From TrEMBL:
Coiled coil: none annotated. Pfam families: ThsB_TIR. This is TIR domain-containing protein. InterPro entries: ThsB__TIR-like_domain (IPR015032), ThsB_TIR-like_sf (IPR036490).
Length: 159
């Protein structure tokens, strides 16, 4: 299977340690996360600069993977990324990461499905986008063993 170019969408403050576990699986492209300092610089330039950065990052990606933590659905830039990726015809999927253990604070509460906030053809976008809730007893390995399949499925659904 070809490695897909992925854009990860997530709530940095709450979930960066869980997200790093997913990024380090190594089965996908090695796109590096923006550093905290770089993100702060982008944010200081204003809303349009953030949109431009997200648009540029998504441009050559085939799939948006929303890593869903306890507060992800409330994040305005996650919402923007979902809408942008969907409108651009990218594969889109969600993976709940609340059962990945963070070294600072263990597991967290399961977050709300962020796709349920969008409507398409009278239905919630959650009706069209799959969200995976990995096995709570071995969430990391469940993600590691299935993420490529989930991504490929999301990309093929959009074709």
């Amino acid at each position: 299977m070809n490695k897909r170019q992925i854009f990860y969408s997530f709530h940095y403050d709450n979930d960066v340690m869980r997200v790093q576990q997913v990024r380090n699986i190594g089965q996908l492209d090695d796109n590096k996360p923006v550093s905290t300092n770089d993100w702060e610089t982008i944010k200081r330039r204003g809303e349009q600069a953030i949109k431009n950065w997200i648009d540029d990052q998504l441009k050559y990606k085939s799939c948006l993977v929303v890593l869903i933590g306890s507060d992800t659905s409330r994040r305005p830039w996650v919402k923007y990324e979902i809408e942008k990726a969907w409108n651009d015809g990218k594969g889109v999927l969600g993976i709940y990461i609340h059962n990945l253990k963070c070294p600072r604070n263990g597991i967290s509460q399961k977050g709300t499905n962020p796709f349920s906030q969008f409507t398409l053809h009278g239905n919630s976008l959650a009706h069209y986008v799959e969200c995976y809730d990995p096995n709570p007893n071995d969430a990391y390995n469940d993600i590691r063993n299935n993420i490529e399949i989930w991504i490929e499925r999301a990309v093929q659904r959009r074709k």
